[in-house]
Amino acid sequence: MARVLVTGGGSGIGAAVCRHLNDTGWTAIAADLRPPEGGLVLDTTDEAAWERALDAAGPLDGLVNCAGIRSRVDIADLDLVEFHRMLDVHVVGTFLGIRGMARRWAAERRTGAVVNIASVVATNAVAGQIHYVAAKGAIAAMTRAAAVELAPVGARVNAIAPGVIRTPMTADRLGDPGQTAWLMSRVPAGRAGEPEEIATVAAFLLSEAASYVNGVLLPVDGGWTAS
C-alpha cells in the first residue's frame, strides 16, 4: 500500500487530500503544526523538524507539499518580516520537502512522486499579494527544476495551481460579497472550487496513471487561467 506524507494535512486542501487518499487505498500521513490524531507535528520551515517527521513517517512513496499561509498587503505597506515569512513557509518548506525525499529515496534505492501545491497566481498575478505571488511562482519554478533533475532516477515532481477554493484560508474573501463578486468575475465556472476537487487531481499525479507526467503546473481553477 503506497504511503504519502501530506504537509498542511490538518485542514483545507491538505486534509481533503488525506481523506481522499485514505478512502482510495493509499496511506496518507498528515503533517501539520496542529496535526489531526495520528498525524505528525511539522513546521515546514524547520530543517530539523523535517528530519524528525520523515524518520517518523518511515518509507514513503509520495509527498504532497500543501502547507501554506496567505495574507493581503499592498507593496508600500509590506515589511521584510512578512515577506520572508511568506517565502519561508512556501519556498523553503517546499524545498526542504523535495530535498528530503530525494535524499531518502536515494538512500533506500526507491523512488516516488512529489506534488506541490502552487496557485493560479503563479501565472496570473493579483494586486496586494506580491509576496504570495512570488512564493507560488517560485514553487512552480522549483517543480520544473526538480522534475528535470530527478527524472533520471525515476522520480516525478508536478504541481497543481488551484484557483479559488473554499477553505478556511479563503473564508474571509468568500465571506465578503464584494470580494466574492470580483473573484467570480475571474472564474468562467462561476463558482469556487472544493478542496476535494484538488485532492482527486493530487491523487492522479501521485499515481502510476500519471507515470509520463512530469514537471507540469496543472491549473485546477474553473477556467481562470484560460480566460
The quaternary organization reads as single chain
* Helix/strand/pairing category: alpha/beta
Round the Cα radius of gyration to an integer and report it: 17 Å
Please outline the major beta sheet. 7 strands, parallel
CATH architecture classification name: 3-Layer(aba) Sandwich
Q: In order across it, which strands form the biggest sheet?
A: 3-2-1-4-5-6-7
Strand content range: 5-15%
The number of distinct helices, counting runs of at least 4 residues, comes to 7
CATH topology: Rossmann fold
Mean pLDDT score: 98
- List the secondary-structure elements in sequence, H or E: EHEEHEHEHEHHHE
Q: How helical, in percent, are the residues?
A: 40-55%
> By CATH's scheme, which homologous superfamily applies?
NAD(P)-binding Rossmann-like Domain
CATH class: Alpha Beta
- Low-confidence region ranges: none
Q: State the end-to-end distance.
A: 40 Å
How many strands in all?
7
How many domains in all?
A: 1
**What global shape is seen?**
globular
Keywords: NAD, Oxidoreductase
Family: Belongs to the short-chain dehydrogenases/reductases (SDR) family.
Protein name: Oxidoreductase
Organism: Nonomuraea cavernae
